[in-house]
């Protein structure tokens, strides 16, 4: 099931914080940036995503569930391609790791 790109607004509301409150906690000047995140107009940096994890007490992969699913599928597809390549000598451990990554995402 496809998720929303993120759940920032729902978590902000859960804690009864304003956009300006969250902006202050993130160290940015205005709630306008938070609005852009909440309306999917901007993707937060890694530092911002981790700060959101601290503020909302939810993992970044939970807060940004849809983005996580997208990245997971892309990595799994690349892992499947890597696993299918024949010419690379790999240890059994490396082959198992790549195969596990390729199986990570079930469509």
Architecture of the largest domain, CATH level 2?
A: Orthogonal Bundle
pLDDT < 50 runs, ≥5 residues: none
> What is the CATH class name of the largest domain?
Mainly Alpha
Shape: elongated
Per the CATH scheme, the topology name of the largest domain is 434 Repressor (Amino-terminal Domain)
Distance between the termini: 9 Å
Q: Roughly how many Å is the radius of gyration?
A: 18 Å
- How many domain modules? 2
What is the subunit organization of this protein?
single chain
Strand content: under 5%
Assigned CATH superfamily of the largest domain? lambda repressor-like DNA-binding domains
Q: Give the ordered list of helices and strands.
A: HHHHHHH
Classification by helices and strands = mainly alpha
What percentage of residues falls in helices of 4 or more residues?
55-70%
Mean pLDDT: 87
Count of helices?
7
Largest sheet: none
The counted number of beta strands is 0
Question: Can you give a write-up of this model?
Answer:
The radius of gyration is 18 Å and the shape is elongated. The mean pLDDT is 87. Helix 2 crosses helix 3 and helix 6 (65-84) crosses helix 7. It has helices spanning 8-14, 19-26, 31-38, 46-56, 60-63, 65-84, 92-103. It has two domains: 8-63, 434 Repressor (Amino-terminal Domain); 67-103. The chain starts with 7 loop residues before the first helix and ends with a helix. With 107 residues, the protein is mostly helical. The longest helix has 20 residues, at 65-84. It contains seven helices and no strands.
Summarize the model shown.
With 107 residues, this protein is mainly α. It is built from 7 helices and no strands.
């Amino acid at each position: 099931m496809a998720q929303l790109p993120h759940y920032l607004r729902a978590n902000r509301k859960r804690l009864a914080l304003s956009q300006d409150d969250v902006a202050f906690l993130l160290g940015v000047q205005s709630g306008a940036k938070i609005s852009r995140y909440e309306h999917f107009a901007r993707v937060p940096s890694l530092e911002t995503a981790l700060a959101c994890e601290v503020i909302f007490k939810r993992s970044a992969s939970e807060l940004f569930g849809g983005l996580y699913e997208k990245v997971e599928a892309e990595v799994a597809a690349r892992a499947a391609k890597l696993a299918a390549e024949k010419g690379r000598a790999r240890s059994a451990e490396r082959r198992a790791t790549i195969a596990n990554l390729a199986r990570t995402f079930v469509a």
